[in-house]
């Protein structure tokens, strides 16, 4: 397929590289040039602009947040020049409000729109092990399914309204950060009684919570391996804020999300914004007077 790819951060670079390896023609664009040049050396085609990438059979955008999506897609009026038959796949984690707005704007201009955020860190993206949550017109999803098959190990279809995929992604990220918070508080309590994080979490994530999220993040917490980040803490804060906004729109109280948001703000205030979001564990330890590794 002839594919445009917009946004080459840690996730986007790995996803676009897998598309190139699979033999697709991939035109890549990024606001900074370095990632473009790196992918061109792997066989990608450099796009001269975001508009140049916004053509072909499909275009994938993997941008950081609402502001980036607005600046690149909407402010540059990319939809106005989109060719007939193009499918736009937005794989970014964005607000539900913007997701609804994008669906309306695409429909008005006759451009197929799929929301397809992913679960997985950069290493999972590189290994083609992402979990992709897709929502939109089933026929459009079917057209881009070969691309999903290259980038991930499973595609979960969640309905025809694109915003449903974004709701699912925000709910999932809330559950992940809640697991990190629970492990952090449990570790701070246990450490006060002489039980090291490694021992506590080793037992619990093998005997009681033997699932990847707990096992993977418990290792980061126990070893204080917060750099380099797989997912930056400031982006986790962004996602919790988006979950709270979605909850308010649905009149669904999320009291624990409010607590986690405040703890993430605490982490940002103490200089951890650019570290992995598992650095949230430092907040509980610091409050318990036990900041440090055992």
Short characterization:
The protein has 294 residues and is of the alpha/beta class.
Q: Would you mind describing this structure in some detail?
A:
With 294 residues, the protein is of the alpha/beta class. It folds into two domains: 159 residues, NAD(P)-binding Rossmann-like Domain (Rossmann fold, 3-Layer(aba) Sandwich), CATH 3.40.50; 121 residues, N-(1-d-carboxylethyl)-l-norvaline Dehydrogenase, domain 2 (Orthogonal Bundle), CATH 1.10.1040.10. The chain contains 13 helices and nine strands. Strands 1, 2, 3, 4, 5, 6, 7, 8 and 9 form a nine-stranded mixed sheet that branches. α7 links the parallel β8 and β9. α8 packs parallel to α13. The N and C termini lie far apart (52 Å).
User: Would you state the CATH class of the largest domain?
Assistant: Alpha Beta
Mean pLDDT: 96
Beta-strand residue fraction: 5-15%
Task: Give the helix/strand class.
Answer: alpha/beta
Radius of gyration: 20 Å
Low-confidence segments: none
Range of helix content: 40-55%
* CATH-assigned homologous superfamily of the largest domain: NAD(P)-binding Rossmann-like Domain
Gross morphology: globular
| Number of alpha- plus pi-helical segments | 13
Secondary-structure element order, as H and E? EHEHEHEHEHEEHEHEHHHHHH
> What is the terminal-to-terminal distance?
52 Å
Main pleated-sheet profile: 9 strands, mixed
- The CATH architecture term of the largest domain is 3-Layer(aba) Sandwich
Instruction: Tell me the count of domains.
Output: 2
According to DSSP, the number of beta strands is: 9
CATH topology name of the largest domain: Rossmann fold
